[in-house]
Specification:
The protein has one domain: Dihydrofolate Reductase, subunit A. Helices cover about 20% and strands about 35% of the residues. It contains four helices and twelve strands; from the N terminus they run E-E-E-H-E-H-E-E-H-E-H-E-E-E-E-E. The strands form two sheets. Strands 1, 4, 5, 6, 7, 8, 10, 11 and 12 form a nine-stranded mixed sheet that branches. The chain is globular.
Length: about 160
């Protein structure tokens, strides 16, 4: 399975259930990478999308503790990580992307082997974090992308691989 996120220098991913920054090429990378695939998210991540609507052209799996949810045709709700992992067995693991938020990333990190991280060289106000892969012995930076700039944000598309 894969993880995909945009993080700041301190591995922050969000503030008040919003992304820290919107970089068009990062959003395009996310869209291109996950379209036609399976995306796994928490309920708050789903709520943060425009209109709280699921992502188009993807299988949307929402992990939530709440049993009181309004299910739409393009969403699948699961209520535990075990239930989610069992459900995911029907898909090729290379086609599964964990897309957040913080607790979802933390819970699924042990089951993933690739992380696509857009690293923004800036510190933002944040209240949600991605696990710091730079300080995790089980992960290594396998591809460090070329530095790019969008207005006052310098960023790169990086790939981390599990080594242990």
């Amino acid at each position: 399975m894969n993880l995909i996120a945009c993080v700041d220098e301190e591995w922050g991913i969000g503030y008040k259930n919003e992304l820290l920054v919107r970089i068009p090429s990062d959003q395009k990378f996310f869209r291109t990478t996950t379209t036609g695939k399976v995306v796994v998210m928490g309920r708050k991540t789903l709520d943060s999308f425009p209109g709280g609507r699921p992502l188009k052209d993807r299988t949307n799996i929402v992990l939530t503790g709440s049993k009181d949810v309004n299910v739409r045709d393009s969403e699948i709700y699961v209520h535990s990580i075990e239930e989610c992992l069992e459900f995911l067995k029907q898909y090729n693991t290379e086609d599964v992307y964990i897309i957040g938020g913080s607790s979802i990333y933390e819970q699924f990190l042990p089951y993933c082997d690739t992380a696509y991280i857009t690293k923004v060289d800036r510190v933002f106000s944040k209240d949600a974090y991605f696990p710091n892969l730079d300080s995790n012995d089980e992960w290594e930076l396998s591809v460090e992308g070329e530095e790019q700039t969008y207005f006052d944000n310098t960023f790169s598309f990086n790939t981390y691989k599990r080594v242990k």
